[in-house]
Amino acid sequence: MHIDTVEYVRRAIRSVPDWPKPGVVFRDITPVLQDPRTFRVLIDMFVYRYMRQRLDLVAGIDARGFILGAVLAYELNLGFVPVRKKGKLPFKTLAEEYSLEYGNATVEMHTDAVKPGQRVLLIDDLIATGGTMMAAAKLLQRLGANVVEAAAIIDLPELNGSAILKETGMPVFTVCSFTDAEP
């Protein structure tokens, strides 16, 4: 039986009902990371997509975007830039606040993380409302970087984040998507 690589990765993602609150189905990528074959298939999908693009850096969003971004940067022979939650970086930072469904949050980057004109791939584990991804993209752009694409493993299209990112002109790539109705 042949299963395509997207379905192979998708089937490894665990759905956790009612977490972190009732009514939410959390899409957990840790089973993907724990299985060496599935993790390799996932990373290879990203490597094949970006290996011929002219990129300078990979920026990963705190925290699961660090895992993907660091491995992908290594495989593509690029530098890695962490986009962290507020108060976690030791040097001078630039901050961007964004809205969540339950309040506000802030992400930060070091002020010397990118140089003007650098081409950056932005990556995280999933796109929900798009707030975190948009805030990270704004930080990169404020420092003069060109965000080539926003990438993630999972898209939650019912939360409209990918659509919002695309409306700004941001190219978006996700490996798979889940709807609220799926277990």
TrEMBL record:
Entry GO CC: cytoplasm
Subcellular location: Cytoplasm
Keywords carried by this UniProt record: Cytoplasm, Glycosyltransferase, Purine salvage, Transferase
The protein's Enzyme Commission number: 2.4.2.7
Enzyme class: transferase
Gene Ontology molecular function terms on file: adenine binding; adenine phosphoribosyltransferase activity; AMP binding
Catalytic activity: AMP + diphosphate = 5-phospho-alpha-D-ribose 1-diphosphate + adenine
Pfam families, per database record: Pribosyltran
Pathway field: Purine metabolism; AMP biosynthesis via salvage pathway; AMP from adenine: step 1/1
Major localization class: cytoplasm
GO biological process, one term: purine ribonucleoside salvage
Phosphoribosyltransferase domain span: 53-157
Family per record: Belongs to the purine/pyrimidine phosphoribosyltransferase family.
Assembly and interaction partners: Homodimer.
Role of this protein: Catalyzes a salvage reaction resulting in the formation of AMP, that is energically less costly than de novo synthesis.
Name assigned to this protein: Adenine phosphoribosyltransferase
